[in-house]
UniProtKB/TrEMBL annotation:
It comes from the Bacteria. Keywords: FAD, Flavoprotein, Oxidoreductase. This is Acyl-CoA dehydrogenase. One of its GO terms (molecular function) is acyl-CoA dehydrogenase activity. PANTHER family: ACYL-COA DEHYDROGENASE (PTHR43884), ACYL-COA DEHYDROGENASE FADE28 (PTHR43884:SF20). Residues 121-240 form the Acyl-CoA dehydrogenase/oxidase C-terminal domain. The keyword Oxidoreductase applies. Signal peptide: none annotated.
Length: 265
């Protein structure tokens, strides 16, 4: 796909996600050829779709399709796959809407008593992009507020403390995105684990700093920030939290006694 076609696709996806969410967005993605994109160009489709889900605050069951595709199953199948969640627990994405009151952070996730091992490397990269998109949305809201909010006769964007928080957030987001876009690795599972951890940390950093920049208004339901904060907290826990994955990676490195090459420079 050339650059012009990619830009047109992004524009169409963004417009769709801003106007619909949930099962309706699932149907819209199907019409836009999501299954074909995931099959034919996953390295382009996954970052684009999941980053836009984060930026727009919408949600769709595309994550289930990523897991199905990675495990050789049919994209779009309504089979319920238990997904690992923080604290050694499990959740299931209810893509058919049979349990309307079981949500986490606005996502149709319900708790499960137990699960079974599944391949999650590709799904971790997808959630990582979702987290990066959410973090960028929070940063955008904080930057807009910092430019518009006037204190002591000038915008608070001119205050050093505010600039430091926004800069720290941007650095965390850019670092996470760089990790998500690493080229072919000798250990793709470890790379995906670290990328998800970096994205989770970036989103939590964005939530903390942007909440401080926005001040009291950031705590209200009238402001858009709370949607992204709740979403970031849930997505960080999905498929392993940043803290858990970092510890898991460290334990693996200690047991191995050496660090594998993640990318050839």
């Amino acid at each position: 796909m050339d650059q012009q076609s990619l830009e047109m696709l992004e524009t169409s996806l963004r417009k769709t996600m801003l106007s619909t969410s949930g099962p309706d967005l699932d149907a819209a993605l199907t019409e836009l050829g999501w299954a074909e994109m995931l099959t034919d160009m996953p390295d382009t489709a996954v970052p684009l779709v999941f980053r836009l889900l984060g930026e727009t605050g919408s949600h769709a069951s595309a994550l289930v399709d990523v897991v199905l595709h990675a495990t050789g199953n049919t994209i779009g199948d309504t089979v319920e796959l238990p997904l690992p969640y923080a604290g050694n627990s499990w959740v299931v994405w209810d893509r058919v809407g049979t349990a309307p009151n079981t949500t986490l952070g606005g996502l149709p996730l319900r708790r499960e008593e137990e699960g079974y091992p599944i391949r999650v490397a590709e799904a971790r990269l997808a959630v990582g992009w979702w987290l990066v998109g959410s973090a960028r949305a929070m940063l955008r809201l904080a930057c807009t507020h910092a430019r518009d909010r006037v204190q002591f006769g000038k915008p608070i964007a001119q205050f050093q403390a505010v600039r430091h928080r926004l800069a720290e957030t941007l650095v965390a987001i850019e670092g996470a995105e760089a990790t998500l876009t690493l080229p072919g690795s000798e250990n793709p599972d470890l790379t995906a684990l670290l990328a998800k951890a970096a994205a989770g940390k970036a989103a939590l950093t964005a939530a903390r700093n942007c909440q401080q920049v926005l001040g009291g208004i950031g705590f209200t339901e009238e402001h858009e920030l709370h949607v992204h904060v709740k979403r970031a907290l849930v997505l960080d826990g999905l498929l392993g939290s940043a803290r858990e994955l970092t510890r898991k990676a460290g334990a693996g490195l200690r047991a191995r006694g050496s660090a594998p090459r993640l990318v050839s420079l």
